[in-house]
Amino acid sequence: MLEFMDYVQAAFHAQGGWNRDNSYSSLTTTAHNLLDFQIPHGLRMHISSLSSPNFGTSYTVGSKGVVDGSLSFLYTSLGLSLPARSRTAHLEGLVQGYRHLAALRPPSQTNWTEVLRGGKTIRQKDSLLYGRLYLPTSTLEALYLRRISPNRLLRLNGVSDGSLPSGGSLLALLQNDFGKYSTEYLYSTDSSLIGIRGLYNFGYDPRHPDTLSGRPPAHPWDHQGGRLSAGAEVYFSPINKSGGVSTGLRFTTLPIHTGFPYTMTLTINPLMGNLSSTYAVKAGRNLAFCSRFDFNVYSYESDVMVGVELWQRQQHAPETAWARRLLRPDWPQVEEEVNGVLKARVDNHGKVGLLWECKLKELLVSLGAGVDLKKRERMLGSVGLEVSYSS
Amino acid sequence: MAFNFNWSPLIADTDRVRDMLTSSLNKSPKPPIIVDDILVNELNLGSTPPELEILEVGDLAEDRFRGIFKMSYTGDAYLTLKTRVQANPLNTFLSTKPSFASPQPLAASSGLTIPLQITLSDIRLSGFVILVFSKQKGITLVFRNDPLESLKVSSTFDSIPFVRDYLQKTIENQLRVLFMEDLPAIIHRLSLRMFNSELQPADDAEKDATNDQVPIDPLASPALQAMDGSGDAFDAAPLSLDTPTETYASFSQKNLLRLAALSESQRTLSLFTPGMRDTVFRAWASAADRNEPSNGTHTPLHRPTLSRMQSTLGDQSAWSSSAPSQTSEATSAASRPSLASAATMPSTYTLGTNSSRTRPRKRKHRIVNLRKDKTPEDATDGTSVSSGYNDSASRSAGTSAEPSMAETEPTTLPSYISREGEISTPPRSPKKKVDFKASSDGGQNHDRNATIRARPVTPRNTAVQLNVDNDPTPRASMYLPEKQSQEQRPPLRRQPLPRMQTVPTPVHRAQLSRSTSELSLRGMPPAFESSTGGILEQAWMMKMASEIARKVSEEKAKQGTWRLRGSGSSDDGLQVGGEAPPAYVSRDGFAL
């Protein structure tokens, strides 16, 4: 489940019309959501509030042996309108599952807020400021987001922690989204790490939308109902004289696809000989499967992980069943409210992760457990409960 | 002073060290690059021992030691570790960073674990080491500073500078922790294991091994000191050094319990005898039995001393401290005379038995030498005996010293005494007749003889001497017995010490010539030197010598009486005379 501040940030991106999926770093978001979900550890409670469309606060108290907590504040220049209350928040927005990719839009069509100032319309450069202080450890996190232009986003992440070598680190990330392709440039003060990421979408070019309709596929992978993307990333640290490279491919179905949605990815790390392939299927409205296979051609190490996601929806009241039956099928139907989500994963090392996230009255509850089937004496690795309330 | 640092056995037993290293390496949180347990694959301590320079010795005894060393090591030891490491530098780099500000690469940080073999070689150490050794508490070794100077880490990743540097740095840090924290613990545990096994007296085999090293005499030695104590506290002190440790080693809890049980059984009608290996039981039920070892005559004295000895040992006070206590004990023992001896007899007996068991070989050697020596001539005996015990060098010293020795005897000393005792004891046993005579002779003088009768062995040697001595000197005097006892006791401890050898001759000759104590002093130093190569020992000897000289001078005043007694220094006479009233002595002798 997304933390409140991440929820607000997602809303910031959505409202500003920033497509977060058109980036190489989010190539495997679906598999990540279905397989690498976070299992809460210990007891944790969040109390959050979006007191105004521009300002949010969140407090966290947790206990896993020792009591710790954090205070976080968020300010955004973009007035957010999102169901922030835990009572009204939709679980679909809070729980990240199978990710449906939308059709690409030309960057000019992104929601770009314009304000009238001095008789001229000025495109407002939305920004977001976020800070979080972890109390016992005195670690400070700061985030600065700024939409420099409709297709450019600047992101600054900073961490201040006395235990870090230089007292903290700073990461600057510049993202360019041109629809057809996107690029990212990053720099980290930690050993001066420099990185470049790029993603290219084959087929449909949103910059020339007229070619969309009725055009025969130019090549076999120019799938009308899906999108093939390829990307790569390169990192280099001049101080460490070390770096990293990876390339990836993704094919995912688009909403116009008539069959069940699915997503396939393949990422390769040529330096380390690592191959990772994922396959995720949205088998039904409430069910999604995902599998991942990792293989290293140098060490012959392999991993397999399988995950499932099950959505539980609120049943309609039986009193209104007769009325619904009278609705015509082509009329827009109201989706049933999601009550809870069950996520489970298991890998070939016998590690099982279970997570149940639900809405309980006014609270958002997530209950998770990690089980190691190979450890007979201590099968139950970690159990956690998180309770969130926001107003 | 010098230490004999035996490096080769350390090389042999590396298995346990390897296990302990493995566990200690995996105990501390491992750096992120290491993704598996660290296994110590190979450990070779090399053929070059570290160089140790003694900076300070705070405490020194046979069973404990405290000192500060300056250690430098440039040997060829090497250590091979096996583990699996993360080969992707980006992975390890990011794993140490907070995730919030990490670039979160998609797949560039995917891991590649590689089995890694690391060889640590060219280890250069230099630092100050504090070493505390105690037989009960094991070895505690602490580095005062970070000893690791340099170290060569060679691994599979030498071609990748980042990984190599990282490994080098990480391993150096780990090793620093190991040296400062883990190694002391490992050594302590190891030493505890070793010493505990040795300390368990129940294990006869082990005991024997340990006991062989430890002279049986220690029991007697306290007595010697005590005697000296009456004369010279200082003299006793040096002796005590050796003795306390020895006694301690030879008498473990179990041993003492068994011996106690044995003595109890002999006091009563109980037929139960605790099983003791490598022990010869003699039929004599009387207290005299204990005498068989050289101690026999002295037994009464020994008893009290024993208890004291233990107490001193327990205190672990330095020998110096123990010395005074012993001296005081000696005096007390002397005061106690016959009564105490009688009561204590059984216990002493046990002690004697212990010593005999534990030290079978040493004893035998001595005995053989003594007999040979004695048979030829008394005068020659002294020299020959010394040679037997000691090297030729000591012997020569002994010969030179001998004449003087006789004179000095009374004041001098424990060392002489001890020798005499040793020498005398072996011969005694063979000549029972002599003993009887002696006992009869000395018996008048000494209380213990009465109880001792069994002891005939010891008396015999003394008897020969006694006869001579007694005749010239008045038996009745208490002093005489004391001196004798001194002589007897020393031999027990002294066995290990070569110096003693020279002494013995004087005893025999004492009868011949009891001229000046000074001469004995001269003789002493050479003996010491020969016996002790170590600086420390020499220093001790020097101190002792000076002390002895002083005491001699002091005693000279008293000597008039002492000499007479000293001449009569035969064991029986000595023991009894010191403390027991003449009447007792006479009774004992008659009883025998």
From TrEMBL, chain A:
Pfam families, sorted: MDM10 (PF12519)
Keywords: Membrane, Mitochondrion, Mitochondrion outer membrane, Transmembrane, Transmembrane beta strand
Location relative to the cell: Mitochondrion outer membrane
Protein's GO biological process: establishment of mitochondrion localization; mitochondrial outer membrane translocase complex assembly; mitochondrion-endoplasmic reticulum membrane tethering; phospholipid transport; protein insertion into mitochondrial outer membrane
Protein origin, superkingdom: Eukaryota
Cellular component per GO, a single term: SAM complex
Record membrane topology: Multi-pass membrane protein
Residues in coiled coil: none
Xref: InterPro entries: Mdm10, Porin_dom_sf
Protein task: Component of the ERMES/MDM complex, which serves as a molecular tether to connect the endoplasmic reticulum and mitochondria. Components of this complex are involved in the control of mitochondrial shape and protein biogenesis and may function in phospholipid exchange. MDM10 is involved in the late assembly steps of the general translocase of the mitochondrial outer membrane (TOM complex). Functions in the TOM40-specific route of the assembly of outer membrane beta-barrel proteins, including the association of TOM40 with the receptor TOM22 and small TOM proteins.
Family: Belongs to the MDM10 family.
Record remark: domains: Lacks alpha-helical transmembrane segments, suggesting that it resides in the membrane via beta-sheet conformations similar to those predicted for other outer membrane proteins and porin.
Subunit note: Component of the ER-mitochondria encounter structure (ERMES) or MDM complex, composed of MMM1, MDM10, MDM12 and MDM34. Associates with the mitochondrial outer membrane sorting assembly machinery SAM(core) complex.
The protein, known as: Mitochondrial distribution and morphology protein 10
Gene field: MDM10
Automatic annotation (TrEMBL), chain B:
Annotated Polar residues bias: 344-357, 381-402, 459-470
Top-level lineage group: Eukaryota
GO terms for cellular component: ERMES complex
Its membrane topology: Multi-pass membrane protein
Chain ranges of the SMP-LTD domain: 1-192
Comment text on domains: Lacks alpha-helical transmembrane segments, suggesting that it resides in the membrane via beta-sheet conformations similar to those predicted for other outer membrane proteins and porin.
Family (UniProt): Belongs to the MDM34 family.
Protein name per UniProt: Mitochondrial distribution and morphology protein 34
